[in-house]
Write a structure and sequence with these properties.
With about 300 residues, the protein is of the alpha/beta class. It has a single domain, classed as UDP-N-acetylmuramoyl-L-alanine:D-glutamate ligase. Helices cover about 35% and strands about 25% of the residues. It is built from ten helices and 13 strands. The protein has a nine-stranded mixed beta sheet, sandwiched between helices.
Length: about 300
């Protein structure tokens, strides 16, 4: 039987998440905007950022979370941090006096599909000095948002975190995160930076870019020499995962009314990692991950 979205998972030894923390301005419109004139919208503000979203979903599932990011000294930064701490996340967030907190305008159409226009702000300047090195301990799992590696200003922090985690005996994961910056950075550099990471999350388009293979299963197999576990997110078609030892699993998406797809991949990653760090089978990782992704798309905004 599939687990309920309201059943709390057993706590693992804990997670460290490194990534962006944003304010999401969500504009809900019934269809495409009318260019050159007004388009009526329902506009709301939410906590966002891929790293912050993963941390929020992990905390929502009862996990102990340390979160590392960078925001401005503005009121947006105050709210962004308070939203996470109120939900039990231990925040190691540097306040940048020269740059604003990141903001993302998210346009959501009636079918739930979203178009994002991000201004990373202070996120793009996360530095190695911002890492709380004392919190990198072997019992924790490190998850790094791909945005941290894909942005040149924060890349050294992401690479330093992955290196430190390896030296401290931590397991680690990375989410590719976005196709456009991946194409700008290039396939080989990204694979070089992240090879040796235990878990890689990618959607079908990202996996296609990384391997040149349109078939998700073939792309997954092509990525396995670089990672111990590869997870391909297929949206409404579900997900599949493989391990280098030959284990494979696939599951359909959980069927719910789609309101806003923002953050679905982040919720999915959180659900999967809880199972993976507990030593569960791939199927037992994919199923609760799909449940959390369904819960994410069933409401407005990227957080629980």
């Amino acid at each position: 039987m599939m687990s309920s979205v309201d059943d709390l998972d057993q706590p693992t030894p804990g997670f460290m998440v490194i990534g962006d923390l944003m304010t999401d301005i969500v504009c809900q419109i019934p269809g495409p905007p009318t260019v050159g004139t007004d388009t009526d919208a329902l506009i709301t503000s939410h906590g966002g950022g891929a790293g912050g979203n993963v941390a929020a979903w992990l905390a929502h599932r009862g996990q102990a979370i340390h979160f590392v990011s960078r925001v401005g000294t503005d009121s947006f930064g105050d709210v962004a941090v308070s939203l996470l701490t109120a939900n039990g996340v231990t925040c190691h967030v540097t306040r940048d006096p020269a740059r604003p907190t990141g903001t993302c305008v998210v346009m959501v159409t009636g079918d739930g599909e979203r178009t994002m226009m991000p201004d990373p702000g202070a996120n793009a300047f996360l530095a190695p000095a911002d890492l709380p090195e004392a919190e990198f301990i072997a019992t924790r799992h490190l998850h790094v948002s791909g945005y941290t590696l894909l942005k040149s200003g924060s890349r050294m922090a992401g690479l330093a975190a992955l290196d430190l985690a390896q030296r401290r005996g931590m397991t680690s994961s990375v989410d590719v995160s976005s196709t456009a910056p991946l194409l700008e950075v290039g396939i080989n550099p990204f694979l070089e930076w992240t090879s040796g990471t235990q878990v890689c999350f990618a959607n079908a388009a990202e996996a296609n870019i990384l391997t040149g293979m349109a078939d998700p299963e073939e792309a997954m197999n092509a990525l396995l020499p670089h990672y111990d576990t590869v997870v391909i997110k297929l949206g409404a078609r579900g997900s599949l995962a493989g391990r280098r030892d030959g284990q494979r699993a696939a599951t359909p998406a959980v069927s719910l009314d789609v309101i806003d797809t923002t953050g679905a991949g982040d919720a999915f990653a959180a659900g999967f990692l809880i199972g993976w760090t507990s030593g569960k089978s791939l199927m037992d990782c994919l199923l609760p991950a799909s449940v959390l992704a369904a819960r994410a798309v069933g409401g407005v905004g990227a957080r629980p």
